[in-house]
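Encode chain A's predicted structure.
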Amino acid sequence: MLGPTPCSGPRAKGGSCASSRRPPACDILGGFWGAPHRTDPGDEDFDDISDLAEAWAGAVTLRDLPGCATLASASAQRCTDRRGPPDPLPELARDLGALGWLRAHTGSARGLIFAPETLPVNGPAALAEAGLTDALCFRTGAA
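Encoded structure for chain A:
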């Protein structure tokens, strides 16, 4: 849920989106939970998150990173409840001070959402201790 918002209309023709249409900047600390499982592009059995869409648009417009992270976490939790397996991301988010968490809806990728420049030094080790592999960090969203 924390990816770029699709562009359309006149701004898309110019080759870029206005930053107000993308989520606010955040740092992601992520890894892979469980056995490797690639995202399946043909899998369209997703949870209905239409109730989150209006709130998402509002949070993006307001540049509300905590709001976006809360909504991403709600979407990820619905997916985990439906597809499994249970994983440690909600607890890791709490323990490491993340704003929220995310997951690939058909793969094994998981991540924690932080405000820019607030990744905890012990974050990668905490992920490894919890059983996640191949920890990585990156920034996404609009500055």
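The chain has one domain: 23-35+52-140.
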